[in-house]
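Q: What would this complex look like in 3D?
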Amino acid sequence: MSQVKKQARLPSKTKDSKSPDRELVRVQDLTPEKADQLIWLRARVHTSRAKGKQCFLVLRQQQFNVQALVAVGDRASKQMVKFAANITKESIVDVEAIVRKVEQKIESCSQQDVELHVERIFVISQAEPRLPLQLEDAVRPDGEGEEEGRATVNQDTRLDNRVIDLRTTTSQAVFRLQSGVCQLFRDTLTKKGFVEIQTPKIISAASEGGANVFTVSYFKTSAFLAQSPQLYKQMCICADFDKVFCVGPVFRAEDSNTHRHLTEFVGLDIEMAFNYHYHEVIDSITDTMVQIFKGLRDNFQTEIQTVNKQFPSEPFKFLEPTLRLEYTEAVAMLREAGVEMGDEDDLSTPNEKLLGRLVKEKYDTDFYVLDKYPLAVRPFYTMPDPSNPKYSNSYDMFMRGEEILSGAQRVHDAQLLTERAIHHQIDLEKIKAYIDSFRYGAPPHGGGGIGLERVCMLYLGLHNVRQTSMFPRDPKRLTP
Amino acid sequence: MSQVKKQARLPSKTKDSKSPDRELVRVQDLTPEKADQLIWLRARVHTSRAKGKQCFLVLRQQQFNVQALVAVGDRASKQMVKFAANITKESIVDVEAIVRKVEQKIESCSQQDVELHVERIFVISQAEPRLPLQLEDAVRPDGEGEEEGRATVNQDTRLDNRVIDLRTTTSQAVFRLQSGVCQLFRDTLTKKGFVEIQTPKIISAASEGGANVFTVSYFKTSAFLAQSPQLYKQMCICADFDKVFCVGPVFRAEDSNTHRHLTEFVGLDIEMAFNYHYHEVIDSITDTMVQIFKGLRDNFQTEIQTVNKQFPSEPFKFLEPTLRLEYTEAVAMLREAGVEMGDEDDLSTPNEKLLGRLVKEKYDTDFYVLDKYPLAVRPFYTMPDPSNPKYSNSYDMFMRGEEILSGAQRVHDAQLLTERAIHHQIDLEKIKAYIDSFRYGAPPHGGGGIGLERVCMLYLGLHNVRQTSMFPRDPKRLTP
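A: Here is my prediction, written as structure tokens for the whole assembly.
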């Protein structure tokens, strides 16, 4: 017993006796203030160039890098220079070095005013000598350096070797910004009194008729992967949570091989009860988007600039309050531009793009709401417009002419919902649980679902949603 | 064109002309300061009792409720009293009423000092007359009122009618607290410099040998649902994100019908590079848990008390810093208590529970870390203890004697990882992408995965994880 007692401990800092008593500095903190200090650093070998009795290394941590010199002299032997020169690129090393100010700025590094004079160097993790792609190539803007025969990296090579591709300054910036979008989304909604919910992804019935849904083997039966958390969000509204949001994967078994479709993406979902008009919902969502845009503009400028270096684009423009157009107005604008379409036709993707350009010209905004879609082109649970039954209380939101959100006021009356389902020839038995949710008092409500990867892609002016999905899934890609 | 221009608008507040210009007050704001004011309110009819020329309603919003009186007089007719008396329970109504101070506190309502004298009442959404369960029954503590023949509601009835069950004060408190756990988890880690990542749930290979994994039909091939985001978290570490977390669903095709197993639950996952010792990882995780416990204690006391009323439990105790015991010490404590087990045997669930009681007696904590598990009982990617190859740099964390986290230092060397996989007889072909991730320089790292529902269940002293999952999934339940 005393033996046990003696061994039990409440460690204030679990510094093991074997841990060296060192502080590792961050590359970004290597500034002239640290000049002449002896420091320890852990970093990757970004590049390495041996030249006689010297070896120049560039050491990298994420988007920051610094030049390091190993030179034959008092503290470094010829063998050590040779050892350093042989360390493979992308290996992780610990170095002990003196920080020295430099007379001429080192243009190729983020830390331009200092370099490191290395006294000791250890390899923590050795990279294999042949890298499947070169980081310099992976950040090169398309077309740049072509005359010198310099390569860029194609998308499949990037995605096949995502662990290396994600190390580039561009990827680091993209996914730090993506993390910011999620945080801004949640923080804004939490301040507005929304509650975060967790909804199941394995579901028993494909509510929207069973198209484009993945099937899962579930013990002795089968189930489906949720195409959206909508039904569960709505149940939470019927369960008095009033305003809810959730962030999670949604699954679409759509065989679409386009720049903007994924089979699995992250949905930022909102649902809320409203008092008198579904525009209360639109206002909440557009304000949330505006808070995200402002937060990115104000707090992620470094990341935006970094991405722009490789993928130039115009700064993202938005209005306050957000522009809201009605569907009939959009049709009129398109017709004026020469498009032939019926009043109740859905927008094709090219027409959405064209409309985005027309709206940009006219209103100078990259973000707007298109309201009052024809009822015929929306799902059965969409609330018809009470003043014109050909239209509906539904809306899409667009960034740079591409849809990022689809939403609507939902039918909250079990009787009307049943009628609408019958009209859409949906098997009532399959959606019984859904319809029953509205039988015990349901407030008027609406919401929408935002595609995280699309928001990031379009905000940054990128051209493929795979650039803003860490490990994208499409009909042809399941790995890594 | 002018037509289009005229219709386009930038609404500052999209108040439709049809929206009444009313402000709805919240039930929780109905206090004596509002006495004699005429107000509008939207709420559910919680209970209704007609008595001669009067009808007493209790109107509810989430956990708050207020008494309302409809009485024949100047503003209300006999017909109106009858109309009010016939409104079904759980219907949503709008009322216009005068707030009146009451002389005797209304003990049965959250708003004890006022009642409403109703002048107008409208039904916004009518509930069906027969409710599948009664809210009063659903919040009754087990055993209470049994002699009067009062019912409680069994778990399947609750879950089958979750939309109603979630309206109870207990459910509202549980899931608001759960929302708080997620927020505290993310906020703490964001402050520590962690980046949020999104990992795919559809994966091409079942990395841990293929047991307990759900299969998905994926176009012309098949895929699996991720049992944890671990491999992707690790890839992010290899991709220089340094410290990452994610919150998302994890899937276990385990045919376990216990109080603590779900087939789909929410994982709060952490992974980080460390400098010298994996205890840096343990310290980060335990500190995060402590911040969660403190945040709940300080900001969710109302919710905790509400749940305690129905499900009494001892307050959750924790130490700062967190208690860390080694596996050998735990085995010694168990043996001292009469348990027979070998040094390298895994802990059975009853022994975990017993150990929790022994630790509570000795150290007065409901939360602790068990460190240095026998290597033989951990997955192949677990780093062996360099000083004793029978043990490993791995740990579990426990709340009230039940496991809530499993974690470890991971093998970050491709060669060693290959050897460990062979030792575990794992098909190397299937984990090639995983092993290859470590070939291009990988920092030492570790992490762990926390089960959100278990944390909420055990923090609140509940006894079934289905109580802390909004729409639980187990081998026998796929709906709602």
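A: To summarize the key features: The two ends of chain A are 50 Å apart (CA to CA). Residues 1-17 of chain A have pLDDT under 50 and may be disordered.
Q: Very helpful, thank you.
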